[in-house]
Specification:
98 residues; mainly alpha; two-stranded antiparallel sheet; elongated
Length: 98
């Protein structure tokens, strides 16, 4: 079974977010907003690095519903959009003060 490049990046982002918010952050971040932001930067960097390994120097255009974009922009935008419900849940569950 072959998956489209968009599905591959969405699955990648989903796996990173699930691991981060359900396993890693509760053990290492707690309710520290500074650590949470640093860890989020590491998570999104991981997503972009893996996406880069997969799609660097390809001419594939990714459909972002509002237009076609390159792999980098698709990876970052979808990661941030997918992260919102995870982040809201985490902030409430662990009583993180902003």
């Amino acid at each position: 079974m072959t998956y489209s490049p968009e599905i591959v990046l969405l699955i990648l982002n989903g796996v990173i977010l699930i691991l981060a918010y359900l396993l890693i952050y509760p053990r290492t971040v707690g309710n520290n907003i500074s650590k949470l932001m640093q860890s989020d930067l590491l998570a999104i960097a991981t997503s972009v690095i893996v996406a880069g390994f997969l799609f660097w120097r390809t001419n594939h255009q990714f459909d972002l519903l509002v237009g076609e974009v390159n792999w980098f922009l698709f990876s970052v935008v979808t990661f941030l959009l997918m992260e919102v419900p995870f982040a809201l849940w985490y902030l409430k569950k662990f009583d993180v003060e902003i």
